[in-house]
Amino acid sequence: MSLLKYESQTREPLIDGEKNYHQITEDIITPIELKPSKLWYVGFFISVGLLLFGAYSVYREVTYGIGQWNLNKTIGWGWDITNFVWWVGIGHAGTLISAILLLFRQGWRTGVNRAAEAMTIFAVMCAGQFPIWHMGRVWMAFFVLPYANSRGPLWVNFNSPLLWDVFAISTYFTVSLLFWYSGLLPDMATVRDRAKTKLRKLLYGVASFGWTGSTKHWQRHESLSLVLAGLSTPLVLSVHTIVSFDFATSVIPGWHTTIFPPYFVAGAVFSGFAMVQTLLIVVRKVMGLQDYITLGHIEAMNKVIVLTGSIVGCAYLTELFIAWYGQNPYEWYAFSQNRANIFSPYGWSYWLMMFCNVVSPQLFWSRKLRRNITVTFFMSVVVNIGMWYERFVIIVTSIYRDFLPSSWSTYYTPSIWEIGFYLGTFGLFFTCFFLFAKYFPVVAVAEVKSILKTSGENYKAKMTEIEKSDAEKFYVEEVAHAHH
Amino acid sequence: MAGGIKKFVVGSFEDEAVLFPAVKNVRKAGYKIHDVYTPFPVHGLDHAMGLRETSLHTAGFIFAATGTTTALSCISWIFTKDWPLNIGGKPHFAIPAWIPITFELTVLFSAVGMVLTFCYLCQLSPFVKKHHFHARATDDLFVMAIECTEKTNEAELINFLEKSGAQEVNVQMAETGWWIGRYDREQKLYREELGY
Fold this sequence. Notes:
The complex is a heterodimer of chains A (484) and B (196).
Chain A: H1 21-33, H2 38-64, H3 79-90, H4 93-103, H5 109-134, H6 161-194, H7 198-207, H8 215-248, H9 260-286, H10 295-325, H11 329-339, H12 347-359, H13 367-370, H14 373-399, H15 416-439, H16 445-455, H17 457-460, H18 463-483
Helix pairs in contact in A: 1-16, 2-15, 3-5, 3-9, 3-14, 4-5, 4-8, 5-6, 5-9, 5-15, 6-7, 6-8, 8-9, 9-10, 9-14, 10-12, 12-14
Chain B: E1 5-13, H1 16-28, E2 33-37, H2 45-48, H3 56-82, H4 95-121, E3 142-147, H5 154-163, E4 168-175, H6 190-194
Antiparallel strand pairs in B: 1-3, 1-4, 2-3
Helix pairs in contact in B: 3-4
């Protein structure tokens, strides 16, 4: 019996090049030990600049009130809630990759899960900003906490989807963070044990919690990862489901639909994977990680994009059909006039969404395009623009013409501070991501090592001999035997 | 909790294909493996060492059940006894509307509880100081530490490890405080496993 199982040659290797365990450590950890490049500083300071602009925009909003935004009585949810849902959606890919793909035993997740999970955490941090600052009087944000207060209704309303959101987003953030960090411990220990400077040894020593690599600890670690994956799988589905309840449980035409939960979840995974592509295509190039984040990885994610994009397209058509078939005049008006009518004030946004999310991902049925980096990068940006417009369409086109035509508000454009707040979350996101890329192992070192001998290019070559001898053995033992 | 300084014979292996038979041989020869330190989870090594299965997932289940109970009991007490809030004339005891929060708290309690339990069991925390038998155990070496007792013949053991394929064998003194971890009771003897 051979202890190592080689993977079949028909699957392409997940780790390219002539690698051994030490080489993997070198490839992934070395960028942490070097001084950051000029490009890193440029990117980092642009991000910090955006973050500061965002902070100033928020300062204006807090000081002068929500009036700093161009929201009005009819359009009470505009860019802020659009951005909230957009960021939460982006925050879905990381946990999907690390949890659902772990349960499905997809080896390719090891190359991309660390960065995707980090991206998830940063995206959820950005998402959380919007409902918090949208409160206006943010110093009263603690009103959402469930404790016996002295304000009249003694408790928060546990039957309200907005409170479910508080629980869902904060649980999602906490669990994603724990999942990510428990996976990081062994890799932090790898950095610590290679450290040449005292400061690095101290910092990574603290960050690695004294990890030793004991077999018993690994056994528990594996069990922990598996159970956390099992918990995160329904969790990741629940979060966007609950976000969709914010709309679906209302009585607004265009929101009041039962299709929202699956439709939102598919859209979240769709946009999340697009963001992972945008980031990883840059990261693999800048940090020289092409051997670990291979074309095969990019292709696998593009397959997820074409699948979820098609699910989203199917949902768009279904809700359009049901709006007509349901014969509710308000619902049909929202769909036929506010959205599908391209000459209506916001009709263009509906068709832009349709083009970006439904038509353009169909390119990925072609293997050649799935494996083309330029096309993938361009498409990942297109998808995220499309998914931003999906939330804009759902929110603004449903409410700008309400039940009272005299209060219709046909042209909503965001103010500079509304845009500034959005740009500020980009600043927050990329500041965090740049720091992560500099100080953390961006690929899960230990996990990649664990698949090296089954999926590494140089090891897979050995499979040919084994397959041949196994076939001969099979023939001698089984086929020849059956003939007798 | 406190332990004394103990002596260990430490052998480092470069390949897990060599490590597995070595683990078997060492246990067969009657030595007690203190631990094997590896750079990544080597599947089946825990079984080869005769470690019992972890019951961390059971802890996870208990934490999850605590979360479910906390959410359901708190919300139902709040909305039916403590402050029955009239929300559009809907029933006070509205279980379907509580499913989302109940689910979230179940997951939250389970995840947080399990991670804390994991850290406690493995004695992982910032600022904890542990003895590391080999710096490359987190890079590319599989490091086996065997505890020496009065009966152990050190030279013989070193020789034995070298013959089993260890690249590097040395003797180290390490303090067996609470942090170093003892799995004596977790590890079955080789003959117990075979049933004689």
